Amino acid sequence: MFTTRRQFIQTAAAAGAALSAPFILGAQRDQKFRTALIGCGWWGKNVLHEAMASGRCKVTALCDVDPSKLEVTGDQVNDQTGDTPKPYKDFRELLDREKPEVVIVSTPDHWHALISIAALKAGANVYVEKPTGHTINESLAIVKTARQTGRVVQCGLHRRVGPHYVSARKFFQSGGVGELGMVRCFADGGGGKELPTANAEPPDGMDWNMWCGPGPLRPFNSKLHPGGWRHFLDYANGQLGDWGVHWLDQMQWFTGHEHPRRVFSTGGRPIKGPVVNDGHAQTTDMPDHQVVAYEFDNLTVTWEHRFFAGNNAEKHSIGCYFYGTKGTLHVGWRDGWTFYPTSTRGQVIHEKAQLQEPDGHNIKLLWADFMSAIDENRKPVADIEPAHRASTMVMLGMLSLKLKRALEWDGPADKILNDPEANSMLSRPYRGPWEYPSV
Predict the structure, then answer these.
(1) Residue 369: inside a domain, yes or no?
(2) 429 in a structural domain
(3) What local confidence, expressed as pLDDT, does residue 29 receive?
């Protein structure tokens, strides 16, 4: 055990240096991969920037249903590297013609599975954004395809490589919090009543039918595109799917607890107000607050979020609290991590965040690990299997909220017990001509 804060920080720093070594070695290798980005929005360009900066990628193709995003991204790629990637509106045509070796999937969530699976079958290694699907069986299909093809799949759970997250995990696994009894994951912020926004025509040249793809065909609305789709349950899983997956993954990564045995969720829209989708205007339809309880053997885990009130009554507004017999460990984002001892005579331990700006994440490290995993033919730090388990927790929480009842989960079998209706909702009908992936 560590006897002083200084001793712990010195040990953690040494561990962080050791962790970074394979990233550096991997980035020095000479092979360049033919790389394609599918989904040229803000976040996809962030990931592509690190791919280009690594020196390991030649960007050969871009895909997006919005031609303005294709044009802007293409110009940025050319400015940064001199590459002139070919633009595509249909990912199937891109995969067939360009034969990329690496594919970045940064689309809305309802497209993650079909595109990732197609890329894997085309021979590419895949970097896919979180969560791994919109429904559980989509996510499971990516896992099975990755293992069948032998390709590497890295999920965008970048908190698995961020230095202060790695350090906090080391402290936790050293026994720093004592015997663990509960974990609380949360993300809170401000907000108020939501007014409907009028529907409109899609931007010039945009293929809105392709954007909706296998999901329902809604009228175009500026609340949906660009970016707002995360708050529409036809295409994503709300705040739980956006932020919750990161912190639930942290819990699983720290504790080794992979499968909840029981899940119950409640929530609603008392502040944002009723959902509107009347053919003329729309609101979002995600809950403005939600609580999910996950029961594990000898551990209770909760998720909560609010889009009102903020969280000024507490020290932190986002992250995880690990509650143990020796005290409470908060693992946060820009506020780093802090241990608050139970004993009044104990010492508070704090480590500042170590983040890559301007976005405050660690994509550079995650991309370097992805390249090394391909070089070394190993699983990456955010491999598809743990990403599937974290994404499953998200989707079970949303399913419980929709059904208004608890779900008994058999994690190793990926099925809900004693509830045929709920079990049938592990998949959902696709809009033609798209076919749900086989599991």
Answers:
(1) no
(2) no
(3) 66
Identify the residue whose tokens are 């560590």.
Answer: 2
Q: What is the CATH number of the domain that holds 25?
A: 3.40.50.720
Domain encompassing residue 279? 164-357+384-424
Question: Is residue 221 domain-shared with residue 338, that is, in the same domain?
Answer: yes
> 84 and 205: one domain?
no
**Spatial distance between the Cα atoms of 219 and 172, rounded to a whole number of angstroms:** 48
- Write out the two tokens for 169: 């995990």
Contacts from 111-116 at CB under 8 Å and sequence distance 24+?
A: 111/39, 111/213, 111/214, 112/138, 112/142, 113/138, 113/139, 113/141, 113/142, 113/437, 114/138, 114/213, 114/214, 114/434, 114/437, 115/38, 115/91, 116/142, 116/145, 116/153
**Model confidence pLDDT, tens digit, residues 192-230:** 999 999 999 999 999 999 999 999 999 999 999 998 999
Distant-in-sequence, close-in-space partners of 135: CB < 8 Å, separation ≥ 6: 395, 425, 426, 427, 428
pLDDT of residue 14: 45
Residue 324 binned pLDDT confidence (cut-offs 50, 70, 90)? very high
Last residue of a domain, one of 130, 159, 188: 159
Which residue, of 159, 187, 215, is where some domain finishes? 159
* Residue 214 and residue 431 in contact, taking contact as beta carbons nearer than 8 Å: yes
Report the domain count for the chain.
Answer: 2
Residues 151 and 228 in one domain: no
The CB density around residue 391, as the number of other CB atoms within 10 Å, is: 32
Q: What is the pLDDT of residues 286-304, one digit of tens each?
A: 999 999 999 999 999 999 9
Q: If residue 391 lies in a helix (H) or strand (E), which one and from where to where?
A: helix 384-403
CB 369 within 8 A of CB 154: yes
Q: Give the global pTM.
A: 0.92
Q: Would the pLDDT of 12 be above 90?
A: no
Stretch 82-107: mean pLDDT? 98
